[in-house]
Design brief:
By secondary structure, this protein is of the alpha/beta class. The protein has a single domain, classed as TIM Barrel (Alpha-Beta Barrel), CATH 3.20.20. The chain is built from nine helices and eight strands. The protein has an eight-stranded parallel β-sheet.
């Protein structure tokens, strides 16, 4: 694990790059939130992120979210960014302001069932499979309207994971497609872009970028 000073320096560089990318796209840089992915951050190292100036974190695994938010819940705002299994909804909803990965009818049912347990003000993002990759999580774009209507929790926006590629530019078309879907359905939040392609995501309208290795490398 890097020191708080090293992570703070990496965070500063990421924010500077985001500001530049946002201005090039004629966007306001402050509209883009940096979410620190904590999948590979050990429980005992979580306070280091706060020391580095990180305010928003996202966890991929429900059991790790329970442990980390249970121990350090007041240090950050917490999001859930991993694949969400319906049987894990009950564990996740008390801890987070946003779930980024709502994508199945079974999860909608569990959200309705466990709504009383949710953290006050919790909202969700619908994961969309904009590229149509077989076997990938996400609602098909054509089915998004009906899915939004059936969601029992307020929907803040959309999330996507583009096909894996070593070239960030390959993600641009999918980020643009997600932005267009959000505009069509009058949704504000767009969670897209990781350490690999976050600058392209910002240029295409991301409001939340999920950064891991770029902060900790």
């Amino acid at each position: 694990m890097r020191s708080a000073e090293e992570i703070a320096e990496n965070l500063s560089q990421v924010r500077q790059q985001i500001s530049q990318a946002a201005r090039q796209a004629r966007r306001e840089p402050e509209k883009v939130q940096v979410l620190a992915a904590t999948k590979y951050v050990a429980l005992q190292d979580i306070p280091t992120l706060a020391q580095a100036g990180i305010e928003l974190v996202g966890e991929n695994r429900s059991q790790d979210l329970q442990a980390k938010a249970g121990a350090y819940g007041e240090m950050f705002e917490w999001d859930f960014i991993g694949h969400l299994q319906s049987r894990k909804v009950r564990q996740v909803v008390p801890h987070v302001r946003l779930i980024h990965s709502v994508a199945s009818e079974s999860v909608l049912s569990e959200l309705a069932r466990h709504k009383p347990l949710a953290k006050p003000g919790m909202k969700v993002l619908i994961e969309v499979n904009v590229s149509g990759e077989p076997g990938k999580s996400g609602v098909a774009p054509a089915e998004l309207g009906g899915f939004l209507e059936r969601c029992p929790i307020e929907v803040a926006g959309l999330m996507t994971m583009p096909p894996l590629s070593s070239n960030p530019e390959d993600s641009r078309r999918w980020f643009a497609a997600l932005r267009e879907l959000a505009q069509k359905h009058e949704l504000e939040q767009l969670s897209m872009g990781t350490s690999q392609d976050y600058l392209v995501a910002v240029e295409e309208g991301a409001t939340i970028v999920r950064i891991g290795t770029k902060l900790y490398a």
